[in-house]
Amino acid sequence: MTNNLRLWHRLMFVLLVHSGVVLGSELWPRINGGQSQCYPVQTKDKVSGAKGLLCLRLPWQDPKTLTVDIHIGSAGWELNDVFVWLGSNETDLPYDVEDAWATANFDEFTYTHKRVRERKISIQTSLLNDMGFACPNRATEYFAAVFATVKSIDGRKSEALEIVKSPTESMSDAANLLPYTISCQRFSRSQIMPRPVQSINGQSTSAHRRQLQDCPAYPSNTVFNLTEAEMSKVSYAIKLNMLVTRSEAGLMSKVRKEQKDNYELFNGWCDLNDQALVAKPKDEAVCYACFMGTNGLNPLDGIQNLILSSSLIGDCMVRNGYTDAYNTSYRDDLRCKIDECVQSCDDGLCPLVLSGHSQGGAAAIAAAIDLRHYRPTTITFGSPRPFMVTDDAPCTDLNAEQHYRFINTDANNYDSVPYGTLSGSSNFGQVFLLDDTNWPIGYPGFNADQTRDPQSSALHDRGQYEDKILAIMDRGCFPVPAAPWGQGHYCHYDDECFGNCIANTCRDEANY
Ligand SMILES: *[C@@H]1O[C@H](CO)[C@@H](O)[C@H](O)[C@H]1NC(C)=O
Ligand SMILES: *[C@@H]1O[C@H](CO)[C@@H](O)[C@H](O)[C@H]1NC(C)=O
Ligand SMILES: *[C@@H]1O[C@H](CO)[C@@H](O)[C@H](O)[C@H]1NC(C)=O
After folding, report:
1. Where is the signal peptide, in residue numbers (predicted)?
2. Number of structural domains, the chain?
């Protein structure tokens, strides 16, 4: 193999890959502008049309898929062998370019290899499946190296093609020409940031095997799994909940202006007490409608939470404070935009996600009943109980199976808002208790609406919800199990544990 490879001229790119960033537009090549790097190439024997560019780009649309696009602009040449290595440490890669083909033991490293006869190829590498990577946190660094060989179309000696070298005239320094950073973080794709040039000359080339970063084991009592697609919805929902919150993101008119280019569709409304938005991301055929929580600055809005009277939506009696938070002056506009968004998918039915934090969650629930013909997924974070259930209003019109109720916890407390004890109100759906590890997500059961004490309003903070959800996304282990907590986990109620909750600790019944 090595001998064969040496017949072709070698081109090597080393990409330093660490936390921080991602993508821009789809136009390429664009030298140093962000997403691609091009090398001028020429032939010594003046093959006509052989001058051109060899370009490489890393679209990083999905945090767990590395896409390497390589394009050779010289008419007389094709790509031949392409290798992509990944590592979690620079020493995981075969760095010494001059020696790499001669000495690299390819099996020493994890790589993807494609043999091609094309002028332009796209290689997709799954960090999880092909490379066995998890993405444990936002600070994790990954390193990637791409090797490509080229071959003349008419079989001329390939050595004739050479890279016009970088000013340093050192092949090793070519490694520094592609200092891209890529990230496991789904949402910070503002731009590709050039990483400060690091000298890699003198780096040891001794093989240093990549450590596999394993996902935690699945608990045997997993009740159900939250798929990656579902968790992606949850993470978009919590992000969009930030944009709909006036005290954090500002007035909706400003947010709309700032965000409209970042989404395929973005609309937002506000009135005195409430704000809502409808958004469809560019990379996901899903429609999100998010509702603002209590506007702490406006006492009138806080009062919405305390209104005890109720109105029917479908067969659900919803407390008027929350009905009003949905039944706003802009409700009809909002519904039109949701219709338009849902119909914008090829099959005419994009999935619809309704979401909100705090009072916004209850408004999302009211919307979910009103829009039940779309069979929406409702994702709430620390939502209060919105329903007054009676014999006449059993509330079967809420699709509770797809109502995901995230509730923040720590060892001592529960978010106080979901369990506020306003006069017999209730809630339905899948209860997900967030702790600091979220493996598994605590699952006391379907419709497990019992009041949990002690409570703390500090745990109601939207930012805490966001941090926990993003930590789950960053870990990159899917599906995420939801299960009663296991032996040794904190607890206050039996339904939180696989066994019993004894002295605030889950105990496996078998041991007691
Ligand atoms: C990479 O590996 C080398 C050698 O094992 C080690 O000294 C170095 O600290 C590692 N770097 C990082 C960033 O983990
Ligand atoms: C959850 O997913 C894991 C990993 O794919 C699988 O082993 C387990 O059986 C699944 N459990 C349920 C309840 O779906
Ligand atoms: C929603 O608001 C309209 C007026 O804007 C009102 O006629 C209607 O009764 C309200 N619906 C509910 C359920 O409160």
Report:
1. 1-24
2. 2
> Ligand 2 within 6 A of 439 CB?
no
188 within some domain: no
Which ligand has the shortest distance to the CA of 139?
1
Ligand with an atom nearest the CA of residue 314:
3
Please indicate, yes or no, whether the overall pTM of this predicted structure exceeds 0.70: no
Ligand 1 atom closest to Cα of residue 141: 13
303 shares its domain with 434 = yes
Supply the residue whose CA is at minimum distance from atom 7 of ligand 3: 327
CA distance 151 to 436: 53
- Same domain? For 318 and 412 the reply is yes
Alpha carbon nearest to ligand 3 atom 13, residue: 311
327: CA distance to ligand 3 center in Å?
6
- Whether 230 and 173 map to the same domain: the answer is no
Write b or e for each residue in 450-460: b if 16 or more Cβ atoms lie within 10 A of its Cβ, otherwise e: eebeebeeebb
- Together in a domain, 243 and 308: yes
In sequence order, what are the residues at sequence separation of 6 or more whose Cβ sits closer than 8 angstroms to the Cβ of residue 439?
216, 475, 477, 480, 481
Is 160 found in the same domain as 95? yes
Q: Is 205 in the pocket of ligand 1 (CB under 6 A)?
A: no
Query: What pLDDT is attached to residue 214?
Result: 61
- The reply to whether 334 falls in a domain is yes
**CA 89 to ligand 1 centroid distance, Å:** 6
What pLDDT sits at residue 348? 83
Would you say 124 and 112 are in contact if contact means Cβ atoms under 8 Å apart? no
Q: Alpha helix (H) ranges present in 8-154? A: 97-103
Tell me the CA–centroid distance for residue 316 and ligand 3, in Å: 15
Looking at the fold, whether 41 and 118 belong to one and the same domain comes out as yes
pLDDT of the residue at 68: 66
Ligand 3 contact, 310 CB (< 6 A): no
Residues spanned by the domain of 384: 224-511
**pLDDT tens track for 269-297:** 998 888 999 999 988 899 999 999 875 54
Q: Give the whole-angstrom CA distance, residue 49 versus residue 446.
A: 67
